[in-house]
Design brief:
Shape: flat
Structural class: alpha/beta
Helix content: 10-25%
Mean pLDDT: 83
Distance between the termini: 87 Å
Radius of gyration: 25 Å
Largest sheet: 8 strands, mixed
Order of helices and strands: HEEEEEEEEH
Number of helices: 2
């Protein structure tokens, strides 16, 4: 087999293509964030239920990513999930801002949405956000719907099956 002078270039092209595919896969899986500076400030929030929220999930305001979920823990004194957020220093929010856990799409990934408040003072590093709304859990909604249908007047009473003995 004869070697060509183009073989090293083809190999380099394949290597660069493989690295590009790996980079895109990590970005799509939210496992890689390219940041040239450490320009974040940490804040903490407590939620009754975080659903399927994961570390590295986006923190958005008006659809714009303004930070990421840094870590998730459990506070055994208040029995709530403690979520630490890293917000970009370019974005400042009033101290009375509220947080919601939202879902992108019907069964998509969960993220935190910030609704700005009206306070004159802004959030600073280490602040605790107390106004939060937990994640909507689909199983809880379905069970509430089923129980409300069963409790309606005129709903069939639970009893023996038709044609069965009492």
């Amino acid at each position: 087999m004869q070697r060509s002078s183009k073989d090293p270039w083809v190999g380099l092209f394949v290597l660069v293509g493989g690295l590009a595919v790996l980079f895109l896969a990590l970005k799509a899986g939210n496992l890689l964030t390219v940041s040239l500076s450490d320009s974040n400030y940490p804040v903490t929030a407590r939620f009754d239920n975080i659903g399927g929220l994961k570390p590295r999930a986006a923190v958005k305001s008006a659809g714009v990513v303004v930070g990421r979920v840094e870590s998730i823990g459990f506070d055994d004194k208040s029995y709530q999930a403690s979520v630490r957020l890293a917000l970009d220093k370019r974005f400042v929010f009033p101290k009375d801002s509220s947080l919601k856990i939202l879902t992108s799409g019907l069964l998509g990934e969960q993220y935190i949405g910030i609704e700005a408040g009206g306070d004159e003072k802004n959030l600073a590093a280490g602040d605790l956000i107390t106004t939060t709304q937990s994640a909507v859990v689909l199983e809880n909604l379905i069970s509430q719907f089923l129980f409300s249908k069963a409790a309606e007047p005129g709903a069939p009473a639970a009893g023996p099956a038709p044609g069965g003995k009492p």
